[in-house]
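step: validate -> pass
step: tokenize input -> pass
step: predict -> running
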Amino acid sequence: MLISLIFFFYSTQIVYISLGLSGKPKSKEHVEKVRQANIGKKRSQETCDRISKAKQEYFETHKTIKHTQETKDKISQSKKGKKQSSAHVEANRQAHIGQVRSPEAIEKSRQKMIGKKQSPVV
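step: predict -> pass
step: emit ->
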């Protein structure tokens, strides 16, 4: 029997929420109550195996999904000409501060950009 569960990660605990509540907002009190109810419960080996198999199947099917070239072109076209907000630019900048690129990565980027038109530095 296939049991459908949705995994909701709350802190370090996994809280199982039935499909009847999926997609609906849950209060912090409700989530905490469910988490407390599940603390200390032991799963049978059969249950662990079912969960493991379901996760493996999910990740196997989803990691092999690839966009077609047509879809990639549509996504690219929809993003062209749009400017990122200053908040988005700042968030990206903060995320990359302190990141050190290897000489190989720098050379690879340099080779990729050779012959491409560069926007003027303002």
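step: describe -> Residues 2 and 50 are 8 Å apart (CA to CA).
step: cleanup -> pass
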